[in-house]
Every structure is written in structure tokens, then in C-alpha cells.
């Protein structure tokens, strides 16, 4: 399985989450997940919002743990919102165009999971991508196709609804070929103003997803921890697996749930695939 993280809050250097925690994303990439025999060595990516009109993107097909360019870059930039991903391929080639995050306009997308029997449903799903979006599809992975299906089904106007219609489209395609469990996913998507995440699986075993607790509450729990003094009150981190082992630091997102982290009200709503 892949791992990913998303951050939103006051600007920080990405290295503070990619490298510095005891169970940082880079440390996680070196060791395989439970019941998975391979590490996350099939590429990585970092996407961030800065001074340009739209997000920056740095991706490579090499293992994240050995790339000094990523370490240098993540120590120099500061961003109020970024996504990072380490990949374990599920059948599609190890190449840069298949590395997350995927970007279209102001939007970025990361995914952990898979579409069941993807070679058999790929053509059906590709034909449902909006023709105006289709030329932007660069790679061959199921994750990128999920992103463009979500864009096709209204992600920009209704992020959670667009993701639900994407999931419904994939489940319908899978069941047409007899798949019992067409979709496994945790996804993160952002337009630079909000961070949206969802955890869902067609069967009962959804890949894990966690969100950090209120920084204000964490300061009260751990007044001696200087790191919590550094983060802004509204900062949130969404991760596949916890980065540090501190009681009260993380809350597991229930399966079948979507989160919307943004200025003002933070939303947690049921995630239910629906017809596209």
C-alpha cells in the first residue's frame, strides 16, 4: 500500500513532516506496511502551494529515502498547504507520470488503494472521462484516472460529491465484470484553500487514515513540547499512518467518512458512493 500526508495551516517547511518526526513519511517509506511485503520504493512526490498561481510539483520514480533533492527542496520551501506521497505500485509501471500527487489547474490529488481488476475496467472508465479533460491524463495508473473521473463528475463545484460519484462509477464498472470489491481508497484532494480527504472500501477493510487533534488541545496535553508551540491553532495533518506515537495526537477517521478542513467550520460527513 502507498502512504501519503496532507498539511494545512500556517506556512511550514515540508521537511518538518517528511523527515523530522520519529515515524516520518520518509521513515515509513523504508519499511513495508502490515501484510504487505514491499516497501514504498516505487516513486514519490511533493506538491505545494506557494507564490505561483497554482501548485508546484516535484515527483520522481526513485525511492524517496535516497533522494537528496527532496531533502534539499523540503528544507527550503515554506507552504501553508501541501501533499506528499510515497508509492508502492499495484501493477502499473514505475515511472514519473504515475507518481502522486496528480495536478490539474489549482487541484492536486493523492490516493492509497487500488481499483480491483483494473486492466479489465480501465477502458470503460477512461471512456467516461470528460473529453476536455482527457488530454491532460499523462500516466497509466488507476489513481490518476480516479482523479480525472472526480473532476469529470463535479469535483470543482462539490468536492465530496465529485469523489462520491467517482467511487460510484468505479463500483458500477467493477460489478459489471463480477468484482465483489471494486474499490479500496483513502484519497486527499485540495484546491489550495481546503483539504478534503475520504476513507472508503467496497469491502469492510478500508486502508487506515488519521487526522491530527486540535493544536490548542495538544498544547494543553503537552506543554513542554516545543513543536506544538510552533504550529498554528488551526493547523491539521491528515496521514495514512501516525507520524509520532503520542496519546491524544491522532484520531482515526472512520471508514465511509469524508473530511473537509478549511477556514471556519471543519466538516466530517458520511462518504457514500453514488451514481455518476
From TrEMBL:
<dbReference type="InterPro" id="IPR026869">
    <property type="entry name" value="EgtC-like"/>
</dbReference>
<dbReference type="InterPro" id="IPR029055">
    <property type="entry name" value="Ntn_hydrolases_N"/>
</dbReference>
<feature type="domain" description="Glutamine amidotransferase type-2">
    <location>
        <begin position="2"/>
        <end position="264"/>
    </location>
</feature>
<dbReference type="InterPro" id="IPR017932">
    <property type="entry name" value="GATase_2_dom"/>
</dbReference>
<dbReference type="InterPro" id="IPR052373">
    <property type="entry name" value="Gamma-glu_amide_hydrolase"/>
</dbReference>
<dbReference type="Pfam" id="PF13230">
    <property type="entry name" value="GATase_4"/>
</dbReference>
<protein>
    <submittedName>
        <fullName>Class II glutamine amidotransferase</fullName>
    </submittedName>
</protein>
<keyword id="KW-0315">Glutamine amidotransferase</keyword>
Amino acid at each position: 500500500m502507498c502512504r501519503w500526508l496532507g498539511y494545512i495551516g500556517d506556512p511550514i517547511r515540508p521537511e518538518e513532516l517528511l523527515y523530522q518526526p520519529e515515524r516520518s513519511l520518509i521513515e515509513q517509506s523504508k519499511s513495508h506496511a502490515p501484510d504487505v511485503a514491499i516497501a514504498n520504493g516505487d516513486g514519490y512526490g511533493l506538491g505545494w502551494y506557494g507564490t505561483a498561481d497554482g501548485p508546484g510539483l516535484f515527483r520522481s520514480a526513485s525511492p524517496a529515502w535516497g533522494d537528496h533533492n527532496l531533502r534539499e527542496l523540503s528544507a527550503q520551501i515554506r507552504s501553508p498547504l501541501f501533499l506528499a506521497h510515497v508509492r508502492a505500485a499495484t501493477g502499473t509501471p514505475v515511472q514519473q507520470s504515475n507518481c502522486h500527487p496528480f495536478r490539474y489547474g489549482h487541484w492536486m490529488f493523492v490516493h492509497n488503494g487500488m481499483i480491483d481488476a483494473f486492466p479489465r475496467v480501465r477502458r470503460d472508465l477512461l471512456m467516461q472521462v470528460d473529453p476536455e479533460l482527457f488530454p491532460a491524463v499523462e500516466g497509466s495508473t488507476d489513481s490518476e484516472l480516479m482523479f480525472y473521473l472526480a473532476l469529470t463528475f463535479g469535483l470543482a463545484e462539490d468536492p465530496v460529491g465529485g469523489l462520491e460519484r467517482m467511487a460510484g462509477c468505479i463500483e458500477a464498472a467493477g460489478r459489471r465484470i463480477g468484482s465483489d470489491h471494486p474499490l479500496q481508497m483513502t484519497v486527499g484532494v485540495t484546491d489550495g484553500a481546503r483539504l478534503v480527504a475520504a476513507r472508503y472500501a467496497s469491502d469492510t477493510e478500508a486502508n487506515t487514515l488519521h487526522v491530527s487533534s486540535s493544536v490548542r488541545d495538544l498544547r494543553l496535553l503537552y506543554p513542554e513540547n516545543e513543536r506544538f508551540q510552533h504550529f498554528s491553532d488551526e493547523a491539521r495533518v491528515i496521514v495514512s499512518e501516525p507520524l509520532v506515537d503520542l496519546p491524544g495526537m491522532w484520531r482515526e477517521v472512520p471508514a465511509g467518512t469524508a473530511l473537509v478542513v478549511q477556514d471556519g467550520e471543519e466538516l466530517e460527513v458520511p462518504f457514500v458512493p453514488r451514481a455518476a
